[in-house]
Design goal:
about 270 residues; binds ligand LZUJQKHR; about 30% helix; binds NADPH dihydro-nicotinamide-adenine-dinucleotide phosphate; alpha/beta; about 25% strand; NAD; 12 strands; seven-stranded parallel sheet
Length: about 270
C-alpha cells in the first residue's frame, strides 16, 4: 500500500509556492499530485518554463482539480481572497488544508473552523511557518505579562499585499491574552500626519515597513521605566519557512479541527 501524503500546491509560481514544490519533492513520503495556477490551465508543471520538471497536471479551478485528482492535503500560498475559496473548497472535498496565505478575516477563520469541525478533518492556517518566528511570538506573549507597553514593528519586501502582516496580527492577538487593553503614549497625543502612530490593536501600535531588499522581519519592543526589551526575528529567505510547512503537513493528517498558528502545535 502507498502511504504517501498526496499534496496539491496552490500558487506554484510564487516565491513561497516554488519553495513548497521543492520541499514536497525532497520529502520521501510527500507526493505532489497537482498544482493550482490561474495561468497554464491544462498544461503539465514540467511544461512551464522556470518551474520544476515534475509531471503533474495544472488546474486553474480547485473544485475541478479536487474532483479529478485524489489528494490528502492542499498547501495554499496565494492571496487572501483566493486562499479563502481554496481552503473552503478543499474542506468540502475532504482534503486537509495547510494555509500559509495571510490576510483572512476573523469571520472567515470562524467559518472555516466550523466547516473543518463539521467535516471532522484537520486544517492548519499558519500566519508564519518559521520556527524562530513562532518562538518570537511566544516569548513576546510571556514578556507582555511584565511589560504591558509594547509596539510591534514588522518589516517586509515591497511586493507584500497585506498590512499589517499576518504575523504581526497573530503576535498582537497572543500578547493581548496576557495584556489588558490599554492606551499607550501620552493621553493627549495627536498625529500631525495621519498614521504616524501606526495601527491600533487594543492600544498596542503596529508599524509596517515595506522596502525592497527585505524578506520578512519583526521586532517586538517593550518599554518600562528605565529599561526596554526587544525581541526580534529575521527570515532571510523563504527556505526558512519550509520546516514549518513540513511539520504542518505531517500534523494536519492527525487533526480533526482547524488550528490557527503553529504556536498551538510546537511545545
Ligand atoms: N505563513 C508563512 O510563513 C508565510 C506566508 N506568506 C504568505 O503567502 C502568500 C504568498 O506569498 P508569496 O509567495 O510571497 O507571494 P507571490 O506573489 O510570490 O505568490 C503568490 C502566488 O499566488 C498566485 N495568485 C495570485 N492571485 C491568484 C488567483 N486569483 N488565483 C490563483 N492564484 C493566484 C500568484 O500568481 P500570479 O503570478 O498569476 O499572480 C502567485 O503564483 C502571501 O499571502 C504571504 O503573505 C509568505 C511567506 C511566509
Ligand atoms: O508576505 C510575506 O512575505 C510574509 N507573510 C507572512 C505574514 O504576513 O506574516 C509571513 C512572513 O512574515 C512572510
Amino acid at each position: 500500500m502507498n502511504n504517501n501524503v498526496r499534496i496539491v500546491i496552490a500558487g506554484p509560481r510564487g516565491r513561497m509556492g516554488k519553495e513548497a514544490v521543492k520541499l514536497v519533492q525532497e520529502v520521501e513520503n510527500f507526493e505532489l499530485v497537482a498544482v493550482i495556477d490561474r495561468k497554464n490551465n491544462g498544461m503539465m508543471l514540467s511544461d512551464v518554463e522556470g518551474l520544476p520538471n515534475v509531471a503533474v497536471p495544472i488546474y486553474s479551478d480547485i473544485a475541478e482539480c479536487l474532483g479529478n485528482v485524489p489528494a490528502d492535503v492542499l498547501i495554499d500560498l496565494t492571496i487572501p481572497e483566493t486562499g479563502y475559496v481554496h481552503t473552503k473548497t478543499a474542506l468540502q472535498h475532504g482534503v486537509r488544508p495547510v494555509v500559509g496565505t495571510t490576510g483572512f478575516t476573523k469571520e472567515q477563520l470562524t467559518e472555516l473552523k466550523s466547516l473543518a469541525e463539521e467535516k471532522e478533518i484537520g486544517c492548519i492556517i499558519a500566519p508564519n511557518f518559521a520556527i524562530g518566528a513562532i518562538l518570537m511570538m511566544k516569548f513576546s506573549q510571556m514578556a507582555a505579562k511584565y511589560f504591558p507597553n509594547v509596539e510591534i514593528l514588522e518589516l517586509h519586501h515591497d511586493n507584500k499585499l497585506d498590512a499589517p502582516s499576518g504575523t504581526a496580527i497573530k503576535t498582537a492577538e497572543m500578547i493581548a491574552e496576557n495584556r489588558p487593553e490599554q492606551k499607550q503614549g501620552h493621553p493627549d497625543e495627536k498625529e500631525t500626519i495621519q498614521g504616524a502612530r501606526g495601527a491600533d490593536f487594543e492600544g498596542m501600535r503596529i508599524h509596517s515597513v515595506r522596502l525592497p531588499g527585505l524578506v520578512a522581519h519583526q521586532q517586538v519592543q517593550f518599554g518600562a521605566e528605565g529599561e526596554s526589551l526587544t525581541i526580534r526575528h529575521d527570515s532571510y529567505n523563504r527556505a526558512s519557512f519550509m520546516s514549518g510547512v513540513k511539520m504542518s503537513v505531517d500534523t494536519v493528517m492527525n487533526l480533526n479541527t482547524l488550528v490557527y498558528g503553529l504556536d498551538n502545535i510546537i511545545n
